[in-house]
Amino acid sequence: MASPALGLFLLLATALIPAPASAIGFQLHHRFSGRVRRWAEARAVPGAWWPEKGTAEYYAALAHHDRALRGRALAAASDLSFADGNATVRLSSLGFLHYAIVSLGTPNMTFLVALDTGSDLFWVPCDCKQCAPTTSPDYGENVSFNIYSPNASSTSKKVLCSNGLCDLQNRTSCTAAASNCPYVVQYVSANTSSSGILVEDILYLMTEDAAPQIVKAPIVFGCGETQTGSFLERAAPNGLFGLGMEKISVPSILSGQGIASNSFSMCFGDDGTGRIHFGDKGSLDQQETPFVIDKSFAYMINITGATVGNDSIAAILSALVDSGTSFTYLADPLYTKLTQSVR
Prior knowledge:
two-stranded antiparallel ribbon, globular, alpha+beta, Cathepsin D, subunit A, domain 1
């Protein structure tokens, strides 16, 4: 590792270059660049050390330096929860999914959204052409859901096709860069989808510290004009909160704006209640399971076996961690071996 002295005064090296009399130019060099290395070696800087470019040590040093800079930017940020509370609840009447209450817009409106680690986009019913009913016997007595409208919020903005968060795959209906960005999301459940346009508005969060404060986070989400399949029945009738890894997900947006670190945590209890935090850094004594990173940008883990009573079942397979799926599904050969052991 570089010495503290080197880390302090070689963060950025500059060199004057010839320029017109009315201007001064600078060349900027990364601290691990060859130019800075030759400069330090020529001056015999004490403790100077550079990893070989392209090696694991080189990229580890770059990552460490990046974390240090990002850490200073986020040092003052605390864990965040939804402004209406961090509680989550599993509702059997609404598809056995886990839900939380979120507040959007100005004036703010609340929505009961399903928490889904298996997808990325956050959407709510909006200027509906085809949405679930706002009231139903299935929802319970005295339960009425809100419908969002960009025209009803003074802080709402339409997301244009030129925006970097506008998915290229859904730009076929974009007639110009200034057109509204459409979205279409297909889900695993049969004939289940949500479509509409992307909008930007305020999501209300709250700091989790001794003196809680409201954080108004501008986020991009889906104005869900048309829902199909399970969304018209009991599953997520008032919106779905995607928590995936893509740049359109709320955790990614919060991280990109420096509002919270790029992490979140959810805990679900046996009684169906739980909690959710954004920017949660975890604890030193917690147990961890590494994710399998692949091109799907999904939360995948490796399963190495199962135990039924005293029987150990060896099997290696990858599984998707999906809070938006009601039940656990297993593939063969683990499924067959497991059911045989249960019998």
